[in-house]
Every structure is written in C-alpha cells, then in structure tokens.
Amino acid sequence: MSDPISNPTPLAASLWQTHQDLALACLEHPFVQGIGNGSLPKAQFAYYVGQDAFFLEAFARAYSIAAAKVADWQGFNTFHQLAGGVLQELTLHQSYAAEWHVDLDRVEPGAATRRYTDFLLATAWSQEVGITAVAMLPCMRLYAFLGQELAKPEIPDHSYSDWIRTYSSPQFEPLAEQLADLAQRYASPSPLVQSTYRYAMQCELDFFEAAWQIAP
What we know:
By secondary structure, this protein is mostly helical. The protein has a single domain (42-212), classed as Heme Oxygenase, Chain A. Helices cover 76% and strands 0% of the residues. It has helices at 10-18, 20-28, 30-37, 42-69, 73-100, 111-126, 129-150, 161-168, 173-186, 191-212. The longest helix has 28 residues, at 42-69. The chain is globular and about 45 Å long.
C-alpha cells in the first residue's frame, strides 16, 4: 500500500507501512465504505459527527500542550498552526451538525471516543513531544489516505461528498506532512513509538466500529 503523503518522512513512512493492516481495515470497514458509496444510514453519520467533534477538541488541546512543552520556536509555531487547522475542521463539523440536526453542546462521548481522547491527552501531558506527535500521526495520515481512496476515480455526488472532498483535498495533505515532520524531528524509532502509533491506529478503527454499531 502506498503512502498517502507525497513526500513522507522516513519515520512516518516506516510506521505507516508497519501498521498498514489497521489502515486497510479502516478503509474496508462498512462505515467508511458507506461514506464512500453514500449508503451509510444518516443516524450513524450523525452520531459520528458528534463524536468526532468531541475528539477534535481533544486533538486541538493535545497540539496546544505539545506546543507549550516544545523547546524551540519553530516547533512551537508548527504545533500551533496545526491546532488552527483542527479548529477549521471543527467549523466543518458545525455545518455538518446543523445539517444533520446534531447539538454539539449536548454530545456525550462514547466509550471508544473517550478511550481515544484520554489516550491522546495523557500522552500529551506525560510524554515527550515526539511521542505526542506519533500518537497524533495516525489520525492525520489515515484521513488523508481514506479521503484519497474514496475520491477515486472521482469524488462521488451524494450526501457525504463534502466529507470525501475535505480529506482528499490538497489543503489537508500539508497538515499531515507538517505533523510527520514534527514526528521525524522529535521522535526516534523505539518500541514506545511503535506501540503508541499502533494503539492510536486501533483507536481509529474502534471509532468507526462504534459509530457503525449505532442502530440506524
């Protein structure tokens, strides 16, 4: 499976290839395939939108914690830029929420969502910034991959087209590249890097599965 990022850093490329079984499991999951072909029941997507908004708030906080901990100004600036990208993504979710009648202020995180956000925030507070970048890398890399794959041979025209358009867009890929650069700069290959990356990728798969299990 090719890397979804055009110029992957060695560490990010190695992690992606080592754990590609989980990336493919996400792509082949019926929830993701339902987004791709437009057949996903609206109730399941609405649940996902609410859960993903909760997750993205934690994701932005993890970036901000890493920014506060990193020693050099370049890293500080990049982490904050990435947090800004998440805030833009949350704006998209707000429009989804309005369309799908989801009150984001009343969303209660499910078990899979809480497991993922607790992991990210605990990692950001307790680990070096390189490990935090590695923990966040699967989400960015995976969504670029999913968006690009679902957009082949062209972006379909159905209720979930905007989702596919967002994550396959040229504007999203540079954010994933920036995070890969941070992981390369601040992390070195180690068992902790491998286990952190794989746990985060498994959380992604569990996240889709939890939304799929919601009764339509």
